[in-house]
Amino acid sequence: MTLYAAIFYLLGLVTVAATVLAITRSNLVHAVVYLVISFFGTAMLFYLLGAPFVALLEVIIYAGAIMVLFLFIIMMLRLEEHRQNGGALVRRWLPALVLAGVALGSLILLIIAAPGSANLLPAAAASPLEFGRALYQRHWFAVEVVSFLLLVALVGALYLGRREAETLIASPKEEP
Rounded to whole angstroms, how far apart are CA atoms 130 and 168? Predict the structure, then answer.
């Protein structure tokens, strides 16, 4: 097994474990942290497979913009968090720190091993025309499903935001 195969399987394991932990966490902030680790692992997998541009988009769009949006939503909902002692806090963050450390170690191995290495996979190259044709000719149905899901999410967010505003208008806070 080559170094790149070992890194690939290690990153795959980190990504799957972080995703499972993101799904199973009851604390939303912890779930977002695990999801960010999962997105970084996915980005490193894309880089390892010869798609550095897709890896960059994964980090900028998903790990950056969408996770910031999720954190804003969590803050807007004002969910109360139960305070716990220091031992429980360390226990809750330990899996995230371990997965992040493994992902960071894999990234360092990729950076150290990449310069001048003959084992790298060739970068995938496609012109915007080829990419557009592949996306909208072969995968048009998936694009339409994703656009419909985004529309439903937008309508749901507007509905929830309007309901919150109507509740606040209907029952204004009493002034002392």
Answer: 51
Cα 114 from chain centroid (whole Å): 25
Residue 127 has phi, psi (to 5 degrees) of: -75, 160
Q: Which amino acid is at 99?
A: L
- Residue 12: which residues within 8 A CB-CB, separation 6 or more? 41, 45
For domain 3-125, the CATH architecture is Up-down Bundle (1.20)
Q: How many CB atoms lie within 10 A of CB 30?
A: 18
Q: Which of 62, 65, 10, 23 is nearest to 39 (CA)?
A: 62
Would you say residue 82 has pLDDT above 60?
A: no
Q: Is the pTM of this model over 0.70?
A: no
Distance of alpha carbon 118 from alpha carbon 116, whole angstroms: 6
Q: Answer whether residue 14 shows pLDDT above 70.
A: yes
Residue 70 pLDDT exceeds 70: yes
CA–CA separation, 143 vs 61, rounded Å? 17
Query: Taking Cα atoms as reference points, which of 131, 112, 132, 110 lies closest to residue 121?
Result: 110
Cα 15–chain centre separation: 10
Contact status, residue 54 vs residue 42, Cβ threshold 8 Å: no
